[in-house]
Amino acid sequence: MKKRTTLKQLARELDVSISTVSKALKNSPEISQDTIDRVKAFAKLLNYRPNNIALSLKNKKTKTIGIIIPDIVHHFFTKVIKGVEKYANSNGYNVIVGLSNESFSNEVINMEMLANGSIDGFIISMSRETMQRQDYQHYTETLNEDIPLVMFDRVVAEIPCDKVIVDDTKSAEIAVNTLINKGATKIAILTTKDYVSVGRLRTKGYLEALKNHGINPIRDLIIKIDDELLYEEDHLDVLEKQVRELLLNHTDVNGIFAVNELYAVVAMKVAKEMGYEIPNDLQVIGFTDGMLSKHATPTLSTISQHGESMGSKAAELLIQRIDERVNDLPKEPTKTVVISTNLIQRGSTK
Amino acid sequence: MKKRTTLKQLARELDVSISTVSKALKNSPEISQDTIDRVKAFAKLLNYRPNNIALSLKNKKTKTIGIIIPDIVHHFFTKVIKGVEKYANSNGYNVIVGLSNESFSNEVINMEMLANGSIDGFIISMSRETMQRQDYQHYTETLNEDIPLVMFDRVVAEIPCDKVIVDDTKSAEIAVNTLINKGATKIAILTTKDYVSVGRLRTKGYLEALKNHGINPIRDLIIKIDDELLYEEDHLDVLEKQVRELLLNHTDVNGIFAVNELYAVVAMKVAKEMGYEIPNDLQVIGFTDGMLSKHATPTLSTISQHGESMGSKAAELLIQRIDERVNDLPKEPTKTVVISTNLIQRGSTK
DNA sequence: TATCAACACGAAAACGTTGTAGTAATGTTA
DNA sequence: TAACATTACTACAACGTTTTCGTGTTGATA
User: Fold this and answer.
1) N or C: which end of chain B has fewer CB within 10 A?
2) Using an 8 Å Cβ cutoff, are A211 and A223 in contact?
3) A212 phi and psi angles, rounded to 5 deg
4) Structural domain includes residue B122
5) Is residue A56 part of a domain?
């Protein structure tokens, strides 16, 4: 194996000590200009570059942050990564990505793989299975080991760390309010099982909007989809069937709020097949502003979560914590940053 | 800063040497069972885990691979990452992601950030700007430093490394053949400027299919889109306008082949607005099987690139090279693996 | 009882850096 | 000219491991 140029090699060939080489490369005043020039020239010649690993070991920091997400084939998470990367890179950090694939054990394994010194801190959105099991031991252990941790989107109160979220409840309420204001009188919601925090919160917003308008919620109109296989083919059939049944049993539904864009798009598809005209007969609002929303027919009105901002913010919070830690600053209380959403109105609403 | 448990601490508290602790944890036969048990128990108590950075330094390998892609908000790349991650993880490797954002300098910076010992090898898809400038110095430098490199999708012949691609030309030819067999007689192509290798190759396939069927290509029907701002809002307006003009000037176009799914979906949208019925008046085939293809109306027939397979394969090749390098095995000649595509027929073709 | 394994452990080097604490060889001052 | 600064370097420890090469005790053998 070809070996990279090291200080030792430079030192040997230049017939000076390692320290001299190190200092010369850093323009130390201890070293004569002559030597500095010689060393630098030779270093350039041999294409010397300091070994990051050695530095990490010495400095006890890796300048790397780990982000662990449930699924990368997902526009929202992808946006978040982009935001994290951008902020991290411009602060000299690298980003290492772990995929939990919505599985508890994968999440644990990934965290363990990285928590052995490979990274200075974590940014995490919890896997579905973890939410279901409510087993947060690996999180608390990480925190106990004093490794900073920032959660985003799918968070739980039990874990005492910085968090970046959107106001799911409020956003959902705004979406449903909009539907009502635009004339929808009977509004269904396509949501997830309650253990998915964001689904639960958005459902809450839906219910609040109804209540504020004196509309009684109808159990049949609240469809909680088991999203085990979200974004998998076979899962969609189930979803389609449920929407079809809904529209069959309640032909006067004229508004649908979906907690993600895929549900919304599928709902529109089924409705169109059944002869509904969107937005005239039926108005639809989704959540998450991704590719699908922009290019569906009709284009989908949706709540934009600003994933990239969430990512940057999470990175910012994390790097602050890392600094706090390495500089032994007093620990600030954990904070939860709420990124504001906004409703993007497109073709699926009047 | 709270310090992690180290061998030294364990040694001190157990009143044995560091070596003994190290060996005990590895069940060395040199150490008595008694001591092994004591050490292990205490290590577990203090939650000891070996410091990966120290290991990396010692072993001269990081068990980390870097993947650099032009854009993460892109279904295809996302699939590739997933494939890389899967293969890498199950072989004990971590994945660190760099985003070039289609920019040359970002690509260079990212590679330099990682090529200082942080990673054992690269998996890369070239940024658009790099293809345009044809400046491959950072690649050759990386190879000169003996850092293994595998390219995928957007590759160039000038760089002597392993590659993973699909047969763009052949796949495009198959797509266009299918269009012709299904009755399309006047087929347009929505492609990119020639410097994007995949665009150029797919255009070549289009032309070959036409030639094989005795159809003369018409310059007007070959639309090369400057994809500077692909997936950005303002870019799409330009695209829409171009498609509109095409269909206006050539009302008898009855087939469109697009080199990515977004172009295809936009084309369908414009066509529908102009009163075309898909697939009866106009058949469309895209490239890349992403979210859009599955959920467009009508659903889009498309060439599936199997991004995940490409990712796994790339990771496999890279890890082979890494092994070759660290074990000083003889260097095998570089190879180019062609992942087979297949045409997924959906609603946009008859 | 001197010799030699076997056993159980420790010392030290190495991976590539950085920074502190020396240390020679000059030049300057009283 | 003895005491002291300054200059320009070098030695060494440290970061946390692993591993090779000792080494001091045992107990068994001749």
Assistant:
1) N
2) no
3) -60, -20
4) yes
5) no
ω before B279 within 30° of 0 (cis)? yes
Under 8 Å between Cβ of B38 and B14: yes
- Name which of A228-232, B119-123, B277-281 the model is least confident about: A228-232
Q: Please name the residue whose C-alpha is nearest to the C1' of nucleotide D8.
A: A31
Interface of B with A in 100-139 (CB under 8 A): 109-110, 113-118
Question: What is the count of structural domains for chain A?
Answer: 3
| Residues B180 and B208 both lie in one domain | yes
Q: Are residues A272 and A323 in the same domain?
A: no
SS3 B65: strand
Range of the domain at A18: 7-50
Where would I find the beta strands (DSSP E) of chain B? 64-69, 94-99, 121-124, 149-152, 162-166, 187-192, 222-225, 255-258, 283-287, 301-304, 336-339, 342-344
d(CA A85, CA A97): 10
Element (H or E) spanning A261, and its range? helix A261-273
Over its C-alpha atoms, chain B yields an Rg (Å, rounded) of: 26
Chunked in runs of 10, what are the mean pLDDT values of chain A (350 residues)? 92 96 96 96 96 96 96 93 97 96 95 95 96 96 95 96 97 97 96 92 97 96 79 72 94 95 94 94 94 92 97 98 92 96 96
Query: Considering only CB atoms, which chain A residues are within 8 Å of B82?
Result: 72-73, 99
- Burial zone of B45 (CB within 10 Å; 0-12 exposed, 13-18 middle, 19+ buried): exposed
What is the mean pLDDT of the segment spanning B258-282? Answer: 94
A133 and A43 in one domain? Answer: no
Strand C contacted by B31 CB (< 7 A): yes
pLDDT single digits (tens) B149-172: 999 999 999 999 999 999 999 999
Q: Tell me the chain A residues in contact with residue B105 when contact means C-beta distances shorter than 8 Å.
A: none
